[in-house]
From TrEMBL:
Its EC number is 2.1.1.-. It comes from Pseudoalteromonas arctica. It comes from the Bacteria. GO terms for biological process: methylation. Keywords: Methyltransferase, Transferase. It is an enzyme of class 2 (transferase). This is Class I SAM-dependent methyltransferase. One of its GO terms (molecular function) is methyltransferase activity.
Length: 247
């Protein structure tokens, strides 16, 4: 099964798959960073917004928030969650907006869904074009040179008489600009178990490469991947939050 097919077929389970994510802590952290580095205005776009949980929090913080995604079933659920927001079916590498924005976010490492380095650079150019001067772009990312391909995360959940186990982990071969997000999903209902295995191809880059791609457009600030406190990146971890101010 292809990555897109899995994503679409399991759109009903997406929120369950992400049930261990603290969307409020993530949103609040970026809201605080926007207060520090932003231009004081409140128009917001969430790239790869999924079913809209981050958009919901930003609306509650007082933003005029919107989202885009490549998956229409996800956007349908996002619209139900956030009826006051605007959502569009677009690719984040080449999206268009009707008005300039003050904050653009991309959570859950979704920046890596750009299809290769050139598409990543197109995404950065699109973000720059969509932002007001002084607007910021916030996203989290992983350095390809720090990936532990043997590591994975796992959580379980129960829904509608079924028990789910979700596993995910990064894999990088050690060369090139491609990495994989490996997924495993098990669903057990009574005595029947269904298993999905999938691999999402994602763009891989070092932080040195990423900073070079960002430099023409942004003033760059990097923080440790900790949504509870704002701590400058110590240049050791390969897991960080980037705050990029349009220049």
């Amino acid at each position: 099964m292809s990555a897109n097919a899995l994503y679409t077929d399991l759109s009903d389970y997406y929120d369950l798959m992400c049930a261990d994510i603290d969307y409020q802590a993530q949103s609040n952290s970026i809201h605080r960073l926007h207060q520090i580095f932003g231009n004081g205005a409140n128009t917001h776009l969430d790239l790869a917004c999924g079913t809209g949980p981050h958009v919901r929090h930003f609306i509650d913080y007082g933003y005029k928030s919107s989202g885009l995604d490549l998956n229409q079933p996800m956007l349908d659920k996002a619209k139900t969650r956030c009826p006051e927001a605007q959502f569009s079916l677009q690719n984040m590498s080449e999206f268009k907006v009707t008005e300039q924005l003050d904050l653009i976010t991309c959570f859950l490492y979704s920046i890596h869904y750009c299809d290769g380095i050139n598409k990543l650079k197109e995404c950065l150019a699109s973000v720059h074009s969509a932002l007001n001067v002084g607007g910021i772009f916030c996203f989290n990312t992983v350095d390809k040179n720090k990936i532990d391909s043997d590591s994975f995360v796992e959580h379980t959940a129960t829904s509608e008489n079924s028990f789910f186990t979700f596993r995910s982990g990064w894999h990088y071969s050690g060369s090139g600009s491609k990495q994989l997000l490996k997924l495993s999903i098990e669903k057990t209902t009574a005595d029947k178990t269904l298993v999905w295995h999938d691999e999402h191809p994602m763009v891989a880059f070092s932080y040195t490469e990423l900073k070079e791609a960002l430099k023409p457009y942004f003033e760059i600030h990097i923080f440790e991947h900790d949504y509870d406190k704002i701590t400058p990146w110590a240049e050791r971890s390969g897991n960080a939050i980037f705050v990029c101010v349009k220049i």
